[in-house]
Design brief:
Number of domains: 3
Largest sheet: 6 strands, mixed
Shape: elongated
Distance between the termini: 97 Å
Radius of gyration: 32 Å
Number of strands: 9
Strand content: 5-15%
Helix content: 40-55%
Strand order of the largest sheet: 5-4-7-6-8-9
Order of helices and strands: HHEHHEEHHHHHHHHHEHEHEHEEHEHHH
Structural class: alpha/beta
Number of helices: 20
């Protein structure tokens, strides 16, 4: 009996591994199966022994070959997968009924054969596609399904909450709706505009199906929405109402250096400091207000003398870094008020919180009592996660909170 593995007799375990590698582990082929691009039936030759000599030289392998396929055949509960047998006659060995090929007639049979984990993954993918196609609602469901399959990895990585946001924002996005506004200022309800920016390619692909290629023809999602291109470089200075806009010679967006801001009093009663410039673009008309955004930890300009006579507010991420920057800002502007960095905001948008990978452990010194308490609770893990980014808040909530501060009498 030879110890060398024979080149005949494909075992069930080998066949499963071969098709798992080809149709499940290979993402491109898996998507092709989902899209119906694989021609069924699929046939796998099992290479039965050609002679009695083969059998006698590898009796253990022959027994495993025969018994595995016999056991599989007995376990099959439908006709989507079948083992084809033939009678073989050999000299010195009795006539044998041997498996000669495996035939799989559809995708369900293929995944069932590969194994329970493969079938569960397949079912999960099918449920996701069905939910999205049904939820989006479109006449050409075939084209939509094909597009969704192309973006399957992105979709399967999204949480249920994000999938709901996806279904909620798609019908709100319409041609030219962002004319004269930045992407972050789109008038959408129930979804943060950071979601739109992060999933732009996915939204663009789906909307292109829904609007029959109009997004591609326009040159992309931002162009189709007619949104303004976001500015780049330096600190962003943005007047939020006509009076300071006129005082700044009608310039709706400025880029100023820290040194310039130190020596240049901004012509508005209210100065709103925003950690991230993208969030600044979400604001529209706020009376007597100019926003300065995108400086991050660069807050040295807050030592400018002209700020003493201004009403100043700071809005940053609700996380340890955000509170550290708030504290730093307050050392320079003691009268500064924090906006949307409170427990009420955390509770309202708790499901949108994320982990904070790198955090400040020492409590910042210049926080108010309520801010210190929230900082400590974030550090203790009282909330679902330790970070609520300002971009995760709904635009209408942001507008309401900033407007309330701007018009309040102090």
């Amino acid at each position: 009996m030879s110890s060398k593995a024979p080149d005949w007799g494909v075992l069930v375990t080998t066949a499963r591994e071969r098709w798992r590698s080809r149709f499940l582990d290979n993402a491109k082929n898996y998507r092709s199966v989902l899209a119906g691009e694989i021609a069924f039936p699929l046939t796998l030759p099992l290479k039965p022994p050609k002679s009695a000599k083969d059998i006698l030289a590898h009796t253990a392998h022959f027994q495993a070959f025969y018994q595995q396929w016999q056991a599989l055949e007995r376990s099959l509960t439908n006709t989507a997968c079948e083992v084809v047998w033939e009678l073989k006659r050999f000299q010195s060995v009795a006539e044998q009924r041997l498996p000669v090929r495996l035939v799989v007639h559809d995708a369900t049979g293929l995944m069932r054969f590969i194994g329970s984990s493969a079938y569960q993954q397949w079912q999960s993918s099918e449920r996701l596609l069905h939910t999205l196609v049904t939820g989006i609602g479109v006449t050409d469901s075939v084209s939509l399904r094909t597009t969704l399959i192309k973006h399957l990895a992105t979709l399967e990585a999204m949480s249920e909450d994000k999938l709901r946001l996806l279904l909620g924002v798609l019908p709100q996005l319409q041609a030219q709706m962002g004319r004269g506004e930045y992407l972050r200022a789109l008038p959408v309800v129930g979804v943060d505009t950071k979601f739109i920016e992060q999933h732009g390619y996915l939204l663009e692909a789906i909307l292109d199906v829904l609007h029959e290629g109009a997004i591609s023809a326009a040159g992309g999602l931002s162009s189709w929405l007619a949104c303004l291109e976001k500015p780049r470089d330096w600190l962003l200075v943005r007047p939020l109402c006509p009076k300071p806009l006129a005082a700044l010679a009608g310039m709706s967006i400025l880029r100023l250096s820290t040194e310039t801001l130190w020596h240049m009093p901004l012509p508005a009663h209210n100065i709103l400091i925003i950690e991230n410039e993208q969030s600044c673009l979400a604001l529209s008309h706020i009376p007597e207000t100019i926003a300065v955004a995108g400086g991050g930890k660069n807050l040295s300009w807050l030592g400018a003398e002209w700020l003493v006579d201004k009403r100043v507010a700071y809005w940053g991420d609700i996380d340890s870094e955000g509170f550290a920057m708030l504290s730093q800002a307050r050392t320079k502007v003691p009268q500064l008020k924090a906006l949307m960095m409170d427990v009420a905001t955390v509770k309202r948008f708790a499901e949108r919180m994320v982990e904070e990978p790198h955090s400040v452990f020492k409590a910042p010194e210049c926080l108010l009592e309520a801010e210190q308490h929230l900082f400590q609770n974030l550090r203790r893990g009282v909330y679902q996660q330790g970070r609520l980014e300002q971009e995760r808040l709904d635009r209408d909530y942001i507008q309401q909170q900033v407007l309330a501060w701007a018009v309040a009498e102090e």
